[in-house]
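thread: overnight batch results

M.L. [08:02]
morning all. the overnight job finished for the chain we discussed friday. pasting input first so we're all looking at the same thing
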Amino acid sequence: MKDLLKKALAEFIGTFTLVFVACGVAGATGGSLVATSLAFGLTIVAMAYSVGRVSGCHINPAVSLGCLLTKRMSLKEFGVYVCAQILGGFVGAVLVFGLFKMADVKVLGDACNYAVGFAGKLTAGGVIAALITEIVLTCIFVYAILNVTDEKAGNGKIAGIVIGLTLTLVHLIGINLTGTSVNPARSIATAISAAIYNGTTDALAQVWMFIVAPLAGAALAAVIYKVLNTEKAE
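M.L. [08:03]
and the structure it wrote out:
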């Protein structure tokens, strides 16, 4: 139980840092493609070599789902991890949005995720495009994680760097489409904070897509991993 609480705290800290730093950069720079992509990737690298020693540095419910489906963690651990991630992301978003508010700096919409324009209404095309984008990007991200963290691969020392670069990669293509989520905890946190500080519920109205799609993408990644990596019985 004590070890699980330590892992939960590590996941809280990791997700807090990811949202506070990376989403803060996205909001402050207006969603700058390069700056935001690097912020997410570099934060993952930093956390992978710090809290990763304790919890494995999932800091993302989609990653935890991939690990659950590939039997790398128990259902109990999964539940604890997800709760810690959502709470950590929420605290990180509330703090960074709040600090910007105190400094009279407007956090632009790019810190959140949208299927359509910031003030637009949901459309079938926007929803479908968002779902496909997030499923594909999350699948790529989680599949890379499952492979690089495979004990048989022997990539332990460089895993954090590979994962960080992969997150940077998916942001480079996804930012101009959905803002790139691939992480339900990150989307929930910023959607709530935008409602609190900016008085807009656009992100909250669309956040379900950034919960469903990343989880579906993670499940798809787990299936692909099992199909390609399961050795044939002799």
